[in-house]
Amino acid sequence: MHTISPEILAIRTNYGKMALDESAVDKNAILQFRNWLQAAVHSQVIEPNAMCLSTIGPDGFPTGRIVLLRGVSEQGFAFFTNYNSHKGHEIEQHPKVSLTFFWPDLERQVRISGTIAKLPAKDSDEYFNSRPRQSQIGAWASAQSEVIGDREELEVKEKEYEAQFEGKEVPRPEHWGGYQVSPIKIEFWQGRASRLHDRLQYTLEHGAWKMERLSP
Fold first, then answer.
1. DSSP 4
2. What is the dihedral of CA 100, 65, 51, 171, to 10 degrees?
3. What is the pLDDT of residue 112?
4. Do the Cβ atoms of 192 and 15 come closer than 8 Å?
5. Which residues share a beta bridge with 111?
């Protein structure tokens, strides 16, 4: 049996700032998400667009990492990354993923399940061109997820690409671009007292959202 330290046992948060009621939410899950994201932004939550992207590895194990949401529409949730990264390879093999947002200041969590596909090149170009120049250089310098000898190796590559693109616009690398997660299920979680949390689950059925309350 594992021994749990008293310090960990003492960590308890009693939720109860807000409630989540069917009569007060939007019937469209995407619009409801936008409402919550806007509330997180207005509350000055740190990195309100940070989300845990979970993929399935070649060994069958799930892998999660934090990425930044860069767009949300009726079609889905967009983010950008290196297509040759570990997550890029995992997405190519298993194009089903989940996203998790957690806004502790608001005692809220959102879980999203869906399918994933690359965004059109023009969308990736548009976003890449909006990035700071050093971030653009970084997309060239970093062979994301590959083993490197040391930090200096990365910095040398950065300087090489700075020299290569000096006085020029930095083009988007073909191995870098966007993905869109098309949701099939979205769950909204609101912390409540005594761990009797509110959970509303939206499921996309025949192009329409079906909402159900889940037991905590």
1. P
2. -140
3. 98
4. yes
5. 100, 187
> Which helix (H) or strand (E) element contains residue 210?
strand 208-213
Helix H segments across the chain? 6-9, 29-42, 86-93, 121-130, 133-141, 151-164
Model pTM score: 0.92
Respond yes or no: is residue 213 known to be catalytic: no
* CA dist., res. 199 & res. 216, Å (int): 7
7-16, 25-34, 151-160: the lowest-pLDDT one:
7-16
**DSSP secondary structure letter of residue 85:** S
**Residue pLDDT, tens place only, 171-193:** 999 999 999 999 999 999 999 99
- Looking up tokens 């060994």 gives 59
Positive or negative CA dihedral for 147, 148, 150, 152? negative
Annotated catalytic residue: which of 133, 195, 199, 213?
A: 195
Strand 62-68 relative to strand 50-56, pairing: antiparallel
pLDDT of residue 128: 97
- The structure tokens listed for 104 are 């502790």
User: Is residue 42 within 8 Å of 105, Cβ to Cβ?
Assistant: no
